[in-house]
Amino acid sequence: MAAGSARIVRYILFASFFLAVLYFASHSSYEGVQLKPSTFGVSPGSSITRPDKSSDDGSGASSWGSKPDGSISNSPGSAKNSPSKPGAGSPKQYQDLAEAPMALSPSDQGWNDLLGTAPGPRMNATFVSLARNSDVWEIARSIRQVEDRFNRRYNYDWVFLNDKPFDATFKKVTSSLVSGKTYYGEIPREHWSFPDFIDQDKARKVREDMAQRKIIYGDSVSYRHMCRFESGFFFRQPLMLNYEWYWRVEPSVELYCDIHYDPFRFMAENKKKYSFVLSLYEYEETIPTLWDSVKKFMKNHPEHIAEGNSMAFLSDDGGEKYNKCHFWSNFEVGNLEWLRSKAYIDFFDSLDQDGGFFYERWGDAPVHSIAAGLLLKKEEIHFFNDIAYYHVPFTHCPTGEKTRLDLRCHCNPKDNFDWKGYSCTSRYFEINGLEKPQGYEEQQE
Ligand SMILES: Nc1nc2c(ncn2[C@@H]2O[C@H](COP(=O)(O)OP(=O)(O)OP(=O)(O)O)[C@@H](O)[C@H]2O)c(=O)[nH]1
Ligand SMILES: *[C@@H]1O[C@H](CO)[C@@H](O)[C@H](O)[C@H]1NC(C)=O
Ligand SMILES: [Mg+2]
C-alpha cells in the first residue's frame, strides 16, 4: 500500500513537471513569434521602402555573392558555421510543441533558433574597426552591442585594421562575437608613418610644446598616425576595396536603442553619402591652420566644391573663418566610393602636403566633416536620430519619448547632447531647414 501511493505521488510529480516544461516551451515560443511584427514597426523616415515581409523565409540570402576569402570565415548558414552563432535562420515553429527539442549545447538541433534573420536585400557593406590587440575587450564590448541591437539579424561583415599583426586572442574573441564574416588587415607602413616631406624636428618640437600646454593627445605620435590613417587611408586598404559602404565602430561605445532597419540600405535608397549622430566644436589648439589649408584647396580645386553644400554648417561668414563645427567621426556610416573619389583624394592630399597632421594635431573628424560639408550636397549628409550612441564623454539619446519607447532605448534623455550649447546639431537642422524633434526645448541644458 505504502509503496503504491509513493508510485502515485511520483507519477503526479512527473506529470506536473512535464506540464510545466510544456507551459514554458509554449510561452517562450509565443514570445518569439510576438517579436517579429515590431521588427518593422518603426520607419526611419518617410521615404524609406520597407523591407518585403513576404520574403521572410529566414534564408537571409544576401543579394550579392560571397567575399573573396581573407581569413576567418563564419558566414551564417554555411555548413561550417560556428555553432555558437545566433541570428542565423528564423525561429522554427513546431506544430506539436511537445516535439520541440530542448537545445542545451551548441551541437543540439535548434541551438541557433533565437530570432530570425531580417528579410530584405543586403548592401555591399561592412563594419570597420581600427584597433590594437590591447583594445580587444573594449572592442568586444562594442561589437556585442552592435550585434545585439542590429547585426545579429543582418550578419554584415566586420573588417579589423591594425598597424601591427592581430594576435590569436583578438581574432578568436572578435570572430566569436560577429555574426557576419570577419577579416583582419595589417596596415602598410606607408599609411602609418611620417611622410618624407615632414620635418621630424619641427614635428617633435610641436609635440613637446603641446605636452606642456596639456593638449589632449598633443604629445602622441601614434594618435597622429591614427588621425591621418582615418582621414586618408582606411577606405583604400585592400579589405575595404571589397565594399561600397562602411560603418565605423570604436572600442567602448554603446548603442542604447534597437535598430529596426538597415542603416546601410537607408543610406543607399536615400542617396546619402555620409552620416552622423553627434556633432560638436573642435579644440582650436589642434587645428590652428586647418581652415587656411582648406581655403587653399578650395582655390585650387573649385571643380570639387559641390553646389548646395553645407558651408553654412562650417562657417558663419560664408567661408572666411571656420566655426569649428564637425561631425564626431568615431561613429560614421558612409559611402566608400565617395572617399575613394578624385574629389576626396585631392582634398586629403592637399591637406596632407600642408603637414598639419604632424605640425598640429588635425583630427579625422574635422577633416571628414569639412570634406562632407564642401564636397557633398547638403542632402547627402544624414543625421540618424534613431541610432542612440555613446562614446565618452557624449551621448546621443533620441529626442521624443515615443521614439525612445518604440525603440526600447535605455539611455537617459537628459544625457542627450544634441540641443546643448556645445553641440552643432541645431545648426545642422537650421541649414537644412529641418524641424527639430518634439521635446528638444526640454533638453537644452
Ligand atoms: N591599431 C591601432 N589602433 C589605434 C591606435 N591608436 C588608436 N587606435 C584606434 O583608433 C581609434 C581612435 O582611437 P581612440 O583612442 O579611441 O581615440 P579617441 O576616440 O579620440 O579618444 P578616446 O576614445 O577618448 O580615448 C580607436 O578605434 C582605437 O582603437 C594605434 O596606435 N594602433
Ligand atoms: C562591392 O563593392 C566593391 C567596391 O565597389 C566592388 O569591387 C565589388 O565588386 C562589390 N561587390 C559586389 C558583390 O557587388
Ligand atoms: Mg575612441
TrEMBL record:
Keyword presence, Glycosyltransferase: yes
Superkingdom of the organism of origin: Eukaryota
Record carries keyword Transferase: yes
InterPro entries reported for this sequence: Glyco_trans_15, Nucleotide-diphossugar_trans
A Gene Ontology BP annotation from the UniProt entry: cell wall mannoprotein biosynthetic process
Sequence segments annotated as region (Disordered): 41-93
Record key words, sorted: Glycosyltransferase, Transferase
Gene Ontology terms: cellular component: Golgi apparatus; membrane
Bias (Low complexity): 57-66
Any one Gene Ontology molecular-function term assigned to this protein's record: alpha-1,2-mannosyltransferase activity
Bias type Polar residues, positions: 71-84
Sequence similarity: Belongs to the glycosyltransferase 15 family.
Name of protein: Alpha-1,2-mannosyltransferase ktr1
Species in which this protein is naturally found: Daldinia eschscholtzii
